[in-house]
Amino acid sequence: MAEPLLEVKDLKVHFPTEDGLVKAVDGVSYSIMPGETLGVVGESGSGKSVTFLTVMGLITPGQARIEGEVVFGGQDLLKVPVEEMRDIRGSQIGMIFQDPMTSLHPYYRVGNQISEAILAHRKIGKKEAMDQAVDMLRRVGIPRPDERARQYPHEFSGGMRQRAMIAMALSLNPDLLIADEPTTALDVTVQAQILDLIDRLKQEFNAAVVIITHDLGVVAEHCDNIQVMYAGKAVEYGYARDIYYDADHPYTWGLLQSIARVDAPRTERLKPIKGLPPSLIFVPPGCPFHPRCPYVFDRCRTEVPQLLPVDGHHASACHLSLEDKERIFKEEVFVHQ
Amino acid sequence: MTRYLVRRILFLILVLVFVSFLTFFIFLKLPASDPARLVAGRQTTPEILAEIRTNLGLDKPWYVQYGRFAKGLVPWPGFFLNEQVYYSYGNFIAVKEEIYRRLPVTIALTLGAAVLWLIIGLPIGIVSAIRKRSLADRAGMLFALFGVSAPVFWLGYVMLFVFWFKLGWAPSPGLDIKESLGHAILAGKFILPWVTLSLLFAAFYARMVRGTLIETMSEDYIRTARAKGLSERRVIFKHGLRAALTPVVTMFGLDVGSLLGGAIITETIFDLDGVGKYTIDAIYDQDFPVVMGVTIFAAFFIVVANLVVDVLYAVLDPRVRYT
């Protein structure tokens, strides 16, 4: 078995606030292999973004209590000195964010912002860095890249801006690209283009990709593995195929059932998950999902379910028996898909 | 852009008309002294007063009188504050001439204070923003609180009392007639005035920079800059400060613009013969054309400063475009 590119072990990120300790991430473990695409799915507040911001070192011990290990390139990134983390950030791990309009600096030209990233990590001349920036813009499919590089972000369209962000993140050929809700702020038609672009570039640059999203529809075709998060914990993990055709967790079932389908009858009601996400300060005891779970029983209220693999790869954190899970999925969830 | 500039120039003239008319109207309605009296001097008779009044056109209807002043509104050489109308009723010197003579003092005072308040205010604001809620931040904001609360007229006299009267470190206030401006500056005559004038602005700017920088640092593009692996210094200065300073720069333009119209209180306390002191003396003497003249002059400066600042904003922020 090849070495994992990134291994996160029992990561906990707790923010002390005036109202209490916010347990944004509460014991999350996963690993990413080189060249893999991982989809991380969950509602707002599930901890999916915080996990990766912590991996990038953008959430620091000054802001939160961080426990656990983040192993990348043979080092625990949580223990690495700040200078070194800064080296890794941008050059070995790249990250793009949700809203490309506000994520690019409005005062500087796009080409400049990309070449700045390059110059921060490579000792090359300004002209050469700019040439590389223009080349990156071309590779992400922006026409007339040399002209576009001299423009400001507000002169780009939303999809183009996101392409520029991707160009910037990939300009140093990182091994891992983290895309935090890359398509949420874009039109549906552009969403597909951006996801296809990420797929293509992943091959070209030989990078692993993490797509963080709340939209199960987004990750369907583009991810090898999917991790579902809820209230700071991972509740299910498996091959994409497993999640869609053999989901084993009530929350995942809820997500699947709530997807609005184009081919559903127009009068059919949407099926949301009842209730609201829990407070991360006062997390429900036992399984954090139990207040909203239609299949809850006594054990759920007291004992925290562990993320246990059922067949070596597919894992779910739920007290229901495997038989029950498979039955419920077949009878109630899959029917509607 | 040209259309925009033309519009702004027309607006300038409109403002000058409004300001001048308001000033004129106030003087007209003032139940105080008769301008003719000022011209006549102490020893006078009713006949002389009447004659002066006729000469000055004070018996004419208000719109005729205003019309005479209106000609001086046009911001063009030959017209602006023309000597035929705008001259002191006290000593008959043209307002224009006096302003030009005194302007260097005001400029020296303003620029010196401006440099000082930037040097003091900006770093305090930046450090406070970067190290929020630290001791440095609290100390900086305490200083700012003092600065915005201490009235200039109080601060100025306290400074004079401590540093000149008691300690003898600063030279006596007031400029020697024979001394050139450069000499006066080197003799340290401007040090206390600079400190006094700059303190309020330094405090204000420290608070403003702190506010805008804190806000800017929470923007998404700062997170992107960090994600690119840029040094924290670069993130703060090139990305954060650059955006945060835009409103500060425009504020600076406006403040300097309005101060150039006369830092009245500071000039009075330290007896500096600038435009501000000229203004206050004229108001005390009820020297009507002078008051009109300096008011128009100050208004002109402020409107021009506004225009410069707006154009500057378009230079600083590429998203802003004027048509």
Polypeptide structure, described:
In chain A, 36% of the residues lie in helices and 21% in strands. Chain A is α/β, with parallel strands linked by helices and 337 residues long. In chain A, the strands form two sheets. Chain A has an eight-stranded mixed sheet, with helices on both faces. Chain A has a four-stranded antiparallel sheet with strand order 2-1-4-5. In chain A, strand 4 (65-72) and strand 5 (75-76) form a beta hairpin. By secondary structure, chain B is mostly helical. Chain B has two domains: 2-95, no CATH class; 98-316, MetI-like (MetI-like fold, Orthogonal Bundle), CATH 1.10.3720. Chain B is built from 14 helices and no strands. Chain B has helices at residues 2-29, 35-40, 46-56, 62-70, 95-130, 135-149, 152-166, 181-186, 191-217, 220-227, 232-260, 264-269, 275-285, 288-316. In chain B, helix 1 packs across helix 4, helix 9 (191-217) crosses helix 11 (232-260) and helix 11 (232-260) runs antiparallel to helix 14 (288-316). The radius of gyration of chain B is 24 Å and the shape is globular. Chain B starts with a helix and ends in a 7-residue tail after the last helix. The A-B interface holds A 56, 58, 86-91, 94-95, 97, 99, 102-107, 116-117, 120-121, 152, 154, 165, 168-169 and B 219-221, 223-231, 234, 239, 242-243, 316-319.
